[in-house]
Design brief:
- The complex is a heterooctamer, with four copies of chain A (271 residues) and four copies of chain B (69 residues).
- Chain A has nine helices and ten strands.
- Chain A is an alpha/beta fold and 271 residues long.
- In chain A, α2 (71-74) links the parallel β4 (52-59) and β5.
- The longest helix of chain A is centred in the C-terminal third of the chain and has 21 residues, at 231-251.
- Chain B is mainly beta and 69 residues long.
- Chain B has one domain (3-64): Roll (Ubiquitin-like (UB roll)).
- Chain B is built from one helix and five strands.
- Chain B has a five-stranded mixed sheet with strand order 2-1-5-3-4, with no helix packed on it.
- Classes of the chains: A alpha/beta (271), B mainly beta (69).
- Chains B and C meet through β5 of B and loops of C.
- β4 of chain A pairs antiparallel with β5 of chain B, so a sheet runs across the interface.
């Protein structure tokens, strides 16, 4: 026989991640904070293979030289989907205002990441304010991807409000603790009709793989890459891990059973 | 020709009376740059800058996108 | 500025896994049991990107048609390093005898996987018999990669005997439970002067990534791939996961701290 | 010409007196195949098969590589 | 020396658990559902050593014999603090109405357990409705102990509303999964100015001990006791576990360090 | 009905722990190292409720005042079973010699704790030397309780040699990491025909409870008590925890299922 | 003397015109028992039962404490 | 009367010729104390101490029980 003439059935390719009607091949979303410079930012973004990059809106530094390079030169909107976020907002009012400015800044594109924080110590979401802001933004025509707690009931409420993706935290922003409660995350995934994207808390590659194996549609991270000793290498590790986890999810893992099962047949043993 | 003081990104900023948002952004060398502007927490699209005259104690916000997660 | 003209410093490539003086680009080793047929075996082996394939030695089935295809046609020794194992042996004597036959079968190549099992229920290694067999085999010129418990003291003894790789179980063979005791594994890795390869217990991609992130030099698996709903897809997932975990290990992950750290700067916040 | 019985892979197997390991492997259609052989738990390399005459109750093992983990 | 004459300093006794100004020696609260009969209920309540017993409010079964024994004969209000709960309510309106009936039933005593559920599948709290109901009840003079998610921000909001205890779930009601996210629980405990009582999810004694070691002020459970093979024995186990965990918390455990530290001195070793 | 006249069936009392034919009511064994003084040692021993106390054998400090109080005045052999250990021994020869001296010291009583350590960094057992020493000691008439790794095969070998108890480490001596691999421990417990006692690694009360819930027959600890901020309180906590865990084991816990199950009946709900 | 129909714990229940909450609870053998009562979702304390006359389609709730967690 | 040197708990210790283990333990004030003794790694039970004469370079071990885990 010649094995090369008879290729075994190859797996069907993953259709990709669809958010608000647009489909992305990559399931990894990355932030742009904490990098040494724009060059490192761009190199890490490229190594990660991401197509969606989140940015923060801040006041222009009046008086500083206006011709210095800007982030959007490094990650141009014509090559990446830019996802403005409300990092640093602690109430619905500020978050909504920030995203209205962001929409103007980005020529009216409506996709955004809403995060309303509860306090500076934990950066845990303030869910009542988050629900309020989501309602206002959806009414105003935004496509809202929302940072939230891992509460399955409030995740469903956010979906019912019309958010285009729910993004529960795996653990505290920047903590690198990984997925503290995979069980709640599973409850959210089971019921969700919009993409579920783990946002915050990923520390290393296996955390991202675990999120995908649980059935998440994507993972968003910033510190895990930008804070690594070698950010560009870690960006690549994350690209591989998200794909590995997704493939493993699709491949259907063996069950966990605390019992042994031999890999080698018993028949014909030498004795 | 008298001058007036507005609040620009949280700090006092003085301009000449009758100047527009366009004049302000120009004076900041930000024309053609990717910035968004709000006056008194109302976003003002760039096409309207030339006609938007600023008045004393207007609160002007000029923002850009920066690195963040 | 034009970012495309100024590539950021790219990471140095992983030198690869060196066992008994030979270097392999892939850090994934796979078994050949439990596949539907040789075609699926070969397709999975190819998808895994492995260069080292383990096989079992069994008595010829007397009387059966002698011209049916054989495993070594599917995974030819001229393209893969064949690693004969002693799966099914419960004492040193049988294991040594089996590997002497294997060496003859494979034209004298000395690399082998020693496993002496303790009982059929757990397939846990019998360490006293394993030590005895390792001693005999090393004296006889074999290059011994050895399946063992996650005991750091006995791992060192095996190294002192002259084994070329120590292969502690992550959990019971075929159980898919993953790495039950990462702490013991770390003790072994810290002190080892030969490659440490996790053997047995991996269930899905993240398990392989975790092993590599702990600092293992490689991972050996069979059931996790062959037993998956889609073996070929899972083989690919494992290739990606091992590389992801290795890259994350080299990139230097952020520390785990149960405290938040904002990804977005505080300065210039809109209020 | 009288026959004798050896143990082949754990089962009784009868041959003619004076036959060699080479004769046995040949009769099994395994010449040129990737097999290894031991007699009484001693490995016998293929070059020695033609000279290796088998005796009653010799225990012969003929093995191959199969799928396993 | 005679050791019996010189007792070593004994530990100071635990002051006990104070809720809404009343102090209880026991830190274990128990439910009264799922028992075989009232006799078993009472025997388990006694074995648990609890002083606070939660009950549910339901419609009288019209037509059924009115003289059959009632729960409050088995656990009389003059011997136990009765904590009426709103089990089965899915919105603020029903929960408030139920507790108004309960207050009348219990001669106006204001202490109650508020739980507003999100859905029948998870029995996870509906936090927006819970906040609404808490506000109404506190204004109406109730002392509200509130079942909630393990969200530190909303726990603080409930405290600010005036709840007398926050009761985050350890895991789903009746699941026996134990404390799925000790980290969030710790965040709640660190900041709380009212008692934090784990409610729901405890499966066995060690789960209760862990809750107390984390610094919880108490534990509330029902299924873990009533559903055990021997409920009365498990009730006793829980009494011991809660006390063990509390004492361990007060005693100040040794730090976790993955390094060995000999119990026996090195000096004077025999060689 | 009057509940006070009809006590519900009470649980059958735990028969206790039998080692080498002698039965002990307490399942907690404690070490005597690391205490401030003998008074604290005795107070902690009393608070723990233990009946078996382990001690170390060391050379007399020549020249030091010979009349100072001695450990065996604080924990007299007529009130406690004294268990001499071989802490600090790194080979079979020294361990056997140490226990021969101990037997002489303790008027020939044969019960002893064998521990042969692998290295000073981990204090992990050296299993080959442990097996050798156990064999010699059993032949010499000792009743050997043996510190060992959590390897189910070698645990059985030690049993077959004739050891009267196997004592696998939960984690490194003095580390306080708790039970790192409950799965291996369960394999040992399932098959053991002699008591299985967790030795080393317990950090706080819940660790001890978990060991007993897994089905261990007892727990031995030293640092977790002596190293606590309040050793006497922690000794009491451990007494309660061991009993709580044992009772929970006997009571038969509810299964872990990640699904909710209401504590309150659905019937008669108010709406 | 005409009768009327109320809703009692979710089911239709007929009474005589002019009867009070006290009459209803009495007829249910629940006087002196630990029950609480609401009419049209308003709690009615027991002292007020004798004066509280029931009208057609009043929604009456009579509740007790039962085992629950 | 000449003296000799033994090894006592790892250190040199000088005694008078002809002295016994009993003399040694006595000189250490340890008679009646809970100690065990070995000479050249052989345990010597206390009843035999009076008859056990020590010789040059004998290695004597005197041990007690101390706190340990």
């Amino acid at each position: 026989m010649n094995l090369h003439d008879t290729p075994a059935a190859q797996p069907v390719a993953d259709p990709g991640l669809t958010i608000a009607g647009k489909t992305y091949a990559s399931r990894l979303l990355v932030g742009t904070g904490k990098y040494r410079d724009f060059e490192e930012t761009r190199a890490a973004v490229d190594a990660s293979g991401t197509e969606i990059v989140t940015v923060t809106i801040r006041r222009v530094n009046i008086g500083q030289h206006a011709n210095e390079p800007s982030l959007l030169d490094a990650v141009p909107p014509d090559r990446f989907t830019i996802l403005p976020n409300t990092g640093g907002c602690y109430n619905a009012k500020d978050a909504v205002y920030t995203l209205q400015l962001a929409r103007e800044l980005l020529d009216g594109h409506p996709l955004c990441k809403l995060e309303v924080l509860g306090d500076e110590k934990t950066l845990f979401p303030n869910m009542p304010e988050t629900l309020k802001a989501a309602e206002t933004l959806v009414k105003d025509g935004f496509q809202v991807m929302v940072y939230c707690s891992d509460d399955p009931i409030q995740a469903r409420i956010l979906e019912d409000i019309g958010c285009v993706a729910v993004m529960p935290l795996a653990s505290l922003i920047g903590s690198g603790m990984g997925i503290l409660n995979p069980w709640n995350l599973s409850l959210i995934i089971e019921q969700a009709r919009v993409p579920v994207i783990v946002d915050a808390g990923v520390g290393t590659a296996s955390d991202a793989a675990i999120a995908m194996e649980l059935g998440c549609d994507g993972v968003l991270m910033n510190t895990a890459i930008a804070g690594a000793r070698e950010p560009i290498r870690m960006a690549r590790a994350m690209r591989l891990a998200v794909e590995a986890g997704r493939e493993a999810f699709l491949a259907g893992r063996i069950p966990r059973r605390f019992a042994a099962s031999p890999s080698s047949p018993m028949a014909g043993r030498i004795a | 020709m008298t001058s007036l003081t507005i609040e620009l990104n949280g700090a006092a900023h003085s301009m000449r009376q009758g100047e527009t948002l366009h004049d302000l952004i120009d004076s900041l060398d930000l024309l053609g740059k990717r910035v968004a502007v709000a006056v008194n927490r109302e976003v003002v699209p760039s096409p309207r800058w030339p006609k938007h005259i600023l008045f004393p104690s207007d609160r002007v916000e000029v923002v850009v996108a920066i690195g963040g997660g």
